[in-house]
Fold:
Amino acid sequence: MSLLRSTIGRLRFIAILEGTSLILLLFVAVPLKRVFDFPMVSKLLEPIHGALFLLFVLNTVSTGIEEGWKFKRTTWKVLLAGLVPFGTFYIDYKILKSLYQKEAE
Structure:
């Protein structure tokens, strides 16, 4: 089963993209902007990260509804992970990967 063919697979892919954009924004773009007065990278990454974050939130809610996730058990953890640097990578490893593997069986 291809990663992008399932709802959880798409969510995993978007989570990795969103997490990568957040890390690039926080640890590359913002220091370049603040320390070296070079705002171009930040101006480029901010709207990309914003769009990926919205896509992540919408896909998390959509997947949670489709898969019948309990909000207090799974959905809120996945949503919260999008706010924390490295959070989407952690939540992919701890929750989404196993759900994807169960779905593939």
Residues 3-104 form one domain. The chain has four helices and no strands. The mean pLDDT is 92. The helical segments are 7-34, 40-67, 71-81, 87-104.
